[in-house]
UniProtKB/TrEMBL annotation:
Protein name: Type I cytokine receptor cytokine-binding domain-containing protein
Taxonomic classification: Eukaryota, Metazoa, Chordata, Craniata, Vertebrata
Gene Ontology annotations for the cellular component aspect, listed alphabetically: external side of plasma membrane
Keywords: Glycoprotein, Membrane, Receptor, Signal, Transmembrane, Transmembrane helix
Subcellular location field: Membrane
PANTHER family: CYTOKINE RECEPTOR (PTHR23037), INTERLEUKIN 5 RECEPTOR SUBUNIT ALPHA (PTHR23037:SF46)
Bilayer topology: Single-pass type I membrane protein
Predominant localisation class: membrane
Domain Type I cytokine receptor cytokine-binding: 141-239
Entries under InterPro entries matching the protein: FN3_sf, Ig-like_fold, Short_hematopoietin_rcpt_2_CS, TypeI_recpt_CBD
Length: 338
């Protein structure tokens, strides 16, 4: 009897499973068929517009043939050059920051979602040609440094080398862009052929203390003999900041210990953001010692019969990418008067 009941139960369960499978077919199949019948059209009028130095606006329109119905439409965007990047968006435009001196290319396609299913259209592609200019006339070896000044402004200093094939009469022009602000250099320093190879901005619109914002540098030029190729580079503002020197460095002896204390450099970053390097020379033996610390003091057992020199420098470290180490503080000496 027990055996028979079990048997019937198994049969009933199998029937149930079959019914459920049938239901799933009925429920799912029509949607697949329905979605297969939906055509997904690529966006139209995909255009690239340069809106600022090293900035492109990608914009497109939904295909007028695309059924709107109850589908979710998004767009898949692929930046192909100069730096590959892929993302999707519900908008029909997107701003990109990229160096444009070698051109720019991107593609976009329509994504259609319906009840958990996704379909894609073909891609449409657009590109910007590199700006004209003769080979090897663009500047090379560009390097830039910013500095937080006592007047709470950020200064900017850039140097570069003229392109190998740049004629002697080449005149270079440097521009920086920070967010929406663009400015041309007014203070150039020239090489012996009178070509601009250095530029200084004592005050800029760069906001001190921002994290990972980009500084765009654009250098183009002109010559009677050749078209000069422009050059662009993006700098993380924190990575090119030359940090200020630690302040109020004091050194004294406490029994047989050398004790140094100091204050954080002039900066919008709080105290906890800095790392310090401590450079100690035993002037009798010539032994040198470099130590790193996050604290604002330093204690070391020394040989009190010797004279020591001490210097400290700083870098921001914990709150942003490393900048350039500050200069060393003025040399301080310590010796026991015996
Ligand atoms: C697409 O571009 C064409 C030609 O420039 C223009 O006539 C048309 O109005 C544009 N379509 C849309 C939807 O903007
Ligand atoms: C869209 O969805 C709404 C509510 O879910 C429904 O009433 C309407 O009929 C649907 N429209 C189309 C065109 O499928
Ligand atoms: C250099 O670039 C600036 C900014 O885009 C532009 O206004 C200027 O006309 C360019 N000069 C030359 C010589 O190409
Ligand atoms: C450095 O010391 C001076 C004089 O004691 C003081 O006025 C100043 O606030 C100190 N600076 C810092 C950054 O602590």
């Amino acid at each position: 009897m027990v055996f028979l009941t079990d048997h019937l139960n198994i049969m009933a369960n199998m029937m149930r499973v079959c019914l459920i499978l049938l239901w799933i077919r009925i429920l799912v199949q029509p949607h697949i068929l329905q979605l297969k019948a939906v055509q997904v059209f690529p966006p139209i009028n995909f255009t690239l517009t340069v809106t600022a130095l090293a900035q492109v606006l990608l914009s497109w329109k939904p295909s007028p043939n695309q059924e709107q119905r109850n589908y979710t439409i998004r767009y898949d965007v692929k930046i192909l050059t100069p730096v590959f990047e892929e993302y999707d968006t519900a908008k029909t435009y997107s701003f990109q920051t990229a160096v444009l001196h070698n051109g720019f290319s991107a593609r976009v396609r329509t994504l259609l979602f319906h009840k958990g299913l996704q379909m894609t259209s073909d891609w449409v592609t657009a590109e910007l040609q590199p700006p004209p200019g003769a080979e090897n006339t663009a500047v090379t070896d560009l390097s830039c440094v910013t500095h937080f000044t006592v007047s709470s402004a950020v200064s900017l200093h850039c140097t570069w080398l003229p392109g190998k094939e740049a004629p002697e009469d080449t005149k270079y022009f440097l521009f920086y862009r920070y967010e929406t602000y663009t400015e041309e250099c007014q203070d150039y320093i020239k090489d012996k052929w009178n070509r601009n190879t250095e530029c200084r901005f004592s005050v800029t619109h760069i906001a001190p203390g921002e994290i990972d914002e980009l500084i765009v540098i654009h250098i183009n030029g002109s010559s009677k003999y050749a078209a000069i190729k422009p050059f662009q580079q993006l700098f993380n503002q924190n990575a090119i900041e030359k940090v200020n020197i630690p302040r109020n460095v004091t050194v004294f002896l406490e029994q047989n210990d050398l004790v140094a204390t100091w204050e954080k450099p002039l900066s919008t970053f709080p105290k906890g953001c800095f790392e310090y390097e401590f450079y100690l020379i035993n002037l009798k033996s010539g032994n040198e010692q470099v130590s790193r610390t996050y604290s604002h003091d330093f204690r070391l057992r020394i040989d009190v019969t010797c004279r020591y020199s001490i210097q400290i420098r700083a870098n921001h470290h914990k709150c942003a990418v490393n900048g350039f180490w500050s200069d060393w503080s003025e040399t301080l000496y310590i010796a026991t008067v015996l």
